[in-house]
Amino acid sequence: MTLTRSQDGPDPSPDGLYERLAEFAGRSAATAGTGKDPVNLPMIRHWCEAMGDDHPAYRGPDAVAPPTMLQAWTMGGLSGHTDRSSAHEELFALLDGAGYTSVVATDCEQEYLRPLRPGDEVTFDTVIESVSALKTTKLGSGHFVTTRTDVRAGGQLAGTHRFRILKYAPVTRPRRPDPTAGSGAKQPKPRRPRPVVNRDNAGFWEGVAAHRLLIQRCGDCAVLRLPWLPGCADCGSPEWDTVEASGAGTVYSYVVMHHPSFPAFDPPYAVGLVELAEGVRMISNVVGVPYDKVRIGMPVRLEFLRVDEELELPVFRAGGED
Questions:
Q1: Mean pLDDT across the chain
Q2: For the purposes of burial, counting CB atoms within 10 Å of the CB of 139, is it exposed (0-12), middle (13-18) or buried (19 or more)?
Q3: DSSP labels for 128-155?
Q4: How far is it, in rounded angstroms, from Cα 158 to Cα 144?
Q5: Contact (Cβ atoms closer than 8 angstroms) between residue 108 and residue 164
Q6: 196 has pLDDT over 70
Q7: Which of 33, 93, 161, 262 qualifies as a FRET site for 174, CA 20 to 30 Å off?
Q8: How far is 260 from 268, CA to CA, in rounded Å?
Q9: Dist CA 215 CA 245 (whole Å)
Q10: What is the CA radius of gyration of the chain?
Q11: How far is CA 245 from the centre of its chain?
């Protein structure tokens, strides 16, 4: 999730909160941390299955780990890490004490310097790179905290992972008026968020507007891909055309959304990872069946849902056999 940073808000802390926060820049958040497990084939296999990535480089006796797994080898899991420095805890305690108690991940950047292979023992060092001045976002006012983790294997730098979060004080929103109270005039339902349309995916949304679900096909190796990308992940070719999905699919995985509540949605509802008959997968709502009746392997069929006067979205209706 990426948040757009807006204008600086006024400094609410006459006692110099930001100056104290800024002092944490450059301090260590973890020194000589160790991965809880060596790089291993089972984790690589689980990752690739979840991501739908069947590249041959990640299988067999000469397998390497997918580069984007870089953070996976340093994560502490539910039990956490024991090698965090006191600076990390002090920074977050200071932010919490100032009322910035909520947190959301905003973006990350990774750089890959050498492949990780099964058996590699991973070590890492993390530094608090920066703490921003007060920023105002739609979620609320807060401070962006950026950390950089250097990941090593066998003493060699394998990659870096720069992670940014927002520690913020949530905006207090007024309660929505009860449409059954007072004059009885029904309040209009808030609109759904608009999809981000850019030069790389505009053709996909043009297809949706025409009630066609278009899948990219590499012009060189013919591999299909969805969501749309500017180039082929298998061979790197920038050439592509499209094929139209038949609309048939099955639920590959799903979650039921209960929280957080959002005005444009009515939880609980099911969000599915749908495997299309063509072999690619996409995320969308599963409709036509109660949320607690959605099951892995359930057949679904594409349909287009008009959510307001401007927006239609591809969704999948349960019971997809014709």
A1: 87
A2: middle
A3: EEEEPPPEE-SSEEEEEEEEEEEEEETT
A4: 26
A5: yes
A6: yes
A7: 93
A8: 10
A9: 7
A10: 23
A11: 25
| Rounded Cα gap, residues 115 and 60, in angstroms | 15
Measured CA to CA, the distance from residue 249 to residue 314 in angstroms comes to 13
Residue range 31-51: mean pLDDT, rounded: 92
Amino acid at 225: R
Task: Report the range of poorest mean pLDDT among 14-18, 149-153, 159-163.
Answer: 14-18
CB count in 10 Å sphere of residue 66: 19
**Strands 281-287, 312-318: parallel, antiparallel or unpaired by DSSP?**
parallel
Please, what is the Cα angle at 38 between 33 and 39, to 5 degrees?
115
Q: Model confidence at 320, in pLDDT bands (50, 70, 90)?
A: low
Span 224-249, mean pLDDT?
93
Structure tokens at 41: 């084939």
What is the per-residue burial (b if ≥16 Cβ within 10 Å, else e) of 184-223? eeeeeeeeeeeeeeeeebeebbebbeeebbbbbbbeeeeb
C-alpha–C-alpha distance, residues 37 and 153, integer Å? 12
Would you tell me how many other CB atoms lie within 10 Å of the CB of residue 87? 17
DSSP 8-state assignment for residue 67: G
Alpha helices in the chain (DSSP H): 17-22, 41-51, 86-97, 202-209
Q: How far apart are CA 29 and CA 84, in angstroms?
A: 6
28-164-90-33 Cα dihedral, nearest 10 degrees: -40
- Please tell me whether residue 19 adopts helix, strand or coil conformation: helix
Task: State pTM to two decimals.
Answer: 0.55
- Does 2 score more than 60 pLDDT? no
Residue with tokens 């287009």: 304
Burial 96-135 (b: 16+ CB within 10 A, else e): eebbbeeeeebebeeeeebbbbbebebbbbbbbbbbbebb
